[in-house]
Amino acid sequence: MARGRAAETNRAGPAAPIPVAVMGLGMIGRGIARAAASSGELELVAAIDPAPDLAHKRLVDLVPGAPPGLRVEADPARALRLLRGGVLLHSGGSRLKDVLGPVEQAVRAGAHVVSTCEELAFPWLSHEQQADALDELARKHEVAVLGTGACLGFVLDRLVATAGGACGEVRHARAVRVADFARCPTCCSGAPAWG
């Protein structure tokens, strides 16, 4: 059945780009925004960051290649209206308690959420009640919430596990990540930060 739907989509022409908004314009968030702006499959419609030094700036001044008409919104509600039920690409912290409010706000607005929050990858491990409530909220609004993580080790663990699951038995896997922490002083400090 999936093949039939894909074939129908191809006959009808290319699919319209998926509207996305980026929340959190730190180093990781800017990288996400750059990738979204350069993708033909995504339409970057909004950027959100409450930091006074970022709010209301032209996004293209922070992210080369971003749509020139976009300004960074301090208020998520306005940006979520622009999103029109698309996908929020969230980069706002590693701890569920730090990101739950904005994620719930996006879900209530009818947006799907993909977040770099590591604890959101499986929140039932340490936050069972909040995880159940978020799951129920997402089901009610018919959206998906996905925690991907962005921390050293976490990304590589997920990548290797996913690749191994797709190809069967794995006898050995090696992954290497090179990161310049001089450009991101809060990446490993555990301090909550906006992307």
Q: How would you describe the overall organization of this protein?
A:
The structure is a single chain. The chain contains 7 helices and 6 strands. The protein has one domain: Rossmann fold, CATH 3.40.50.720. It has a 6-stranded parallel sheet with strand order 3-2-1-4-5-6, with helices on both faces. Mean pLDDT is 83; it is low at 1-10 and 188-195. By secondary structure, it is α/β, with parallel strands linked by helices. The chain is globular and about 50 Å long. Helices cover 38% and strands 13% of the residues. Helix 5 packs parallel to helix 6.
Q: Which class of secondary structure composition applies to the elements? A: alpha/beta
How many helices does DSSP assign?
7
Our estimate of the beta-strand percent is 5-15%
What is the helix/strand order? HEHEHEHEHEHEH
